[in-house]
Amino acid sequence: MMPDPVGRPNRRRNQPLAGVWPAAVVLVVCCLLGAAPPQAWGQVSSRTSAGGSAGSPAATASSTLERWRQREAAVLAVVEKATDAVVAVTDGESYGSGVIVSPDGLVLTAGHVILSRATEFTVQLPNGRSARAKPLGKNLNQDAGMLQITEEGPWPHVDIADGRGIERGDWVVAMGHSGGHDLGRRPPVRLGRVVRIERDALTSDSPIIGGDSGGPLFNLAGQVIGIHSSIGESIAENRHVSIQTFLRDWDRLQGGESWGRLPGTPEPPEEKATPARPAPGANGSDRSAPRGNRSPADEGRRGEPNIGSAVLGVELDLADSQPIIRVIQPNSAAARVGLRVGDVVESFNGVAVTSPKGLVELIGSKRAGDSVKVIVRRGDSRLEYQIILGQLDTRGSGRN
C-alpha cells in the first residue's frame, strides 16, 4: 500500500537523539547563521521592535535573526524526526542509502543502488540494527528504486510529500550514509536549497558524496521530496529523483517491475545483426593490440562482457604508454560529467592508473551503478570527477 503523501503527522513516537550529534548541529547552525538571508523570505515586518523603529537597521537585523532561528529549529526538528528511518543499503559488496516510508518497512532508494543481481539486501539502521530486504522494482530511466524489509515491523518511517508546492530556492535537508555505513555514526546532515526543478528530478546544492545515493532529500516539514541519484560537476550540484516520479510509478515499483536504462547511458541499439566482436586484444585481454586498435575501456577483463558490467564510456589505445582517452562515447557517463578526449586518467577510485590496460581492468572490476572518483590530468590542470558508471549494452558491440 502506498503511504499517504499528504503531509499527515508522523504517528510514531520519536525518541530524543542523545546529544543530537554535535557535528551535524554545528554544520546546520553554521549554515543558518553564516550566510546572507535570501530575498525570497519576504519583507521585514513593518512593526516596531525593540532596538529600533520599523525599517531601521536594528529592526531589520532583529527580524532577520528571528527568521534564521526559525529555520534552525525546523532543520533540527527534521533531523530528530527522520534520522532513525535513514538506512544504509548493501548487497555485501557496495553501499548506498535509502529511507523507510511505511511501518511495514517499504524503502525508497536509487535504482542503481539495487542494480546488482542480488536477491536479498541488508538494510542497516543508525542504531546498529540490521534487517533483510528484497529488491522490488526499478525505473532506471529516472534512477528510482524500491525495497521491502522482509522482517517483522513496525519500522521507524517518515512521511512523503505529494510533490506539489516545491519551488526554486526552497530550503532542503539531505541525509544519507556518506561513504557507507559507519556503526556509531548517525547519517550526516547537509543543508541546501533547490536550484532547479524538472519533471522527474530536482537539483539542489546540498552536498552529497559516494554512499549517499538513494538517501532522502527532505523539505523543512520533514517530508521526503526526493531521493539522491547523482553528483553534478561539483558536489554542490546534485540530482535527486523527484517524489512525484515514485508516486506516479508506485504500483509498478511495488509490484517488482523494472524498466529503462540508467541516466547517462545510451539507448539500446536497433535490433539488427549483431556486429562482430572486437579483434583479440582489443578488449583489454592479455594479448597485445597493435597500435591504432582502440579498446572500449568498459568491457569485461576477459572474453564476453558480463550482463550488468560497468561502462565509463571511453576508448583507449592499448599501445599508449599512458591511459589517454582517445574517444568519448556520446551520452555516456564520461560525456555527462565532462571528461574530454586527450585527458590522461591518473586515478580510478583511489587506485593509481599507469597504463590503458590497468584502467580497463579497474573498470571491469566494477558494476553498473557504482559511484567512482576519477582523477584526470588535462594540460597543466588536475581535475577530479565523481561518476556513476553506466551499464554495458551486451546486444551490440560491447561499446558504450
Description:
Helix content is about 15%, strand content about 30%. The chain is α+β, with helices and mostly antiparallel strands. The protein folds into 2 domains: about 1-260, Thrombin, subunit H; about 295-390, Pdz3 Domain, CATH 2.30.42. α1 (about 20-35) packs antiparallel against α2 (about 55-80). The radius of gyration is 23 Å and the shape is globular. The protein starts with about 20 loop residues before the first helix and ends in a 9-residue tail after the last strand.
As a percent range, the share of strand residues is 25-35%
Work out the helix count. Answer: 6
Number of strands: 22
Mean pLDDT: 76
Unreliably modeled segments = 6-52, 266-295, 299-308, 393-400
What's the topology here?
Layout: H1 22-33, H2 57-82, E1 86-90, E2 95-100, E3 106-110, E4 121-124, E5 130-139, E6 144-149, E7 171-175, E8 189-197, E9 201-204, E10 216-218, E11 224-231, E12 238-242, H3 243-248, H4 250-254, E13 258-259, E14 294-296, E15 310-311, E16 314-317, E17 325-328, H5 333-337, E18 344-348, E19 351-352, H6 356-364, E20 371-378, E21 381-388, E22 390-391
Parallel strand pairs: 5-13
Antiparallel strand pairs: 1-2, 1-4, 2-3, 3-6, 4-5, 5-6, 7-8, 7-10, 8-9, 9-12, 10-11, 11-12, 14-16, 15-22, 16-17, 18-19, 18-20, 20-21
Helix pairs in contact: 1-2
Features of the shown structure:
2 domains, Thrombin, subunit H, 6-stranded antiparallel beta barrel
Characterize this entry briefly.
By secondary structure, the chain is an alpha+beta fold. The protein is built from six helices and 22 strands. It has two domains: 1-260, Thrombin, subunit H, CATH 2.40.10.120; 294-391, PDZ domain (Pdz3 Domain, Roll), CATH 2.30.42.10.
